[in-house]
Amino acid sequence: MITLAHLSDIHLAPLPPVRARDLMNKRITGFLNWKLKRERTLDGEGLTRLVRHMREQNPDFTVVTGDLVNLALDAEYNTTHNWLETVGPPEQVCLCPGNHDAYLPGQLARGMDRWGGYVRGETLDPSDFPFVRRVGDVAIISCNSAVPTLPWVAAGRFEQDQADRLARCLELLGDGGYFRVVLIHHPPNQEQAHPRLGLYGARLFRKAVADHGAELILHGHTHQSSIFAIPGPNGDVPVVGVAAAGAAQGDTGGHDPARYNLFSIQRLGTAWQCTLREFGFQRLSPDIVLRLSLRIY
């Protein structure tokens, strides 16, 4: 059995010192949003406890589906690299980027350079995404939907060239008998289509899965716990979102308190079984509890 942990939307707090010249761009809107709202609802006080609780479950591997930072400052990339080391070594942890990680043109590349092995794996060609990490019979395929956008826009983009590479990865890993877990920050569900927040190119993502299959898709971005499904060649493929790991306990601005998901994956004969357990804070309690246990595959 392989145990896979899933965190997302870390929004590591507090912000490092911000210079006036850092705000002469889109960051000014994010900074104001942080000061007026997110500094309270994403205070990160429970993040250390949440990660400690998750590590006590001894997962074989941990995935993080983006938004590690807030304003894509160089200092934030350094801090989040140090935070990733508390989650685990690069051999046991990988991530896909979120829109905050690519807040300004060129910044995602700086973040990826700093994160090193956490955003590296097997690839089909020199392109960074998708990359593959294999853990026993489980193959984790990390995609990238993070692109710089205009102020007040948090949408993602998934284009044809990446869709073609994803399709090929799914085909090869499916032929190899792997349980395929696809990571993407923005949810690929039709229900989440939104001109300011959604995923442009979601149809390309869904077509790759519909044509070649996957066993599980994990995302973040919404700061909500959710379970959807999209079509695959042999039935529906579960799509699971997780609440923001950096969320405050209590006043979360309408979002769920901080949580993480734990998936137990095993092969039974020629079939797969996957059970989801969701752990996290309650709105009116400081305790981390098992909130949900559900067989999804």
Can you walk me through this structure?
With 297 residues, the protein is of the alpha/beta class. The protein has one domain (2-295): Metallo-dependent phosphatases (Purple Acid Phosphatase, chain A, domain 2, 4-Layer Sandwich). Helices cover 25% and strands 28% of the residues. The protein has six helices and 14 strands. It has helices spanning 27-41, 47-56, 74-87, 107-115, 160-175, 202-212; strands spanning 2-7, 61-64, 93-95, 131-135, 138-142, 156-157, 179-183, 199-200, 216-219, 226-232, 235-241, 259-268, 271-282, 285-295. It has a six-stranded mixed beta sheet. The chain has a six-stranded mixed beta sheet with strand order 4-5-7-9-11-10, with helices on one face. The longest helix has 16 residues, at 160-175. The protein is globular and about 60 Å long.
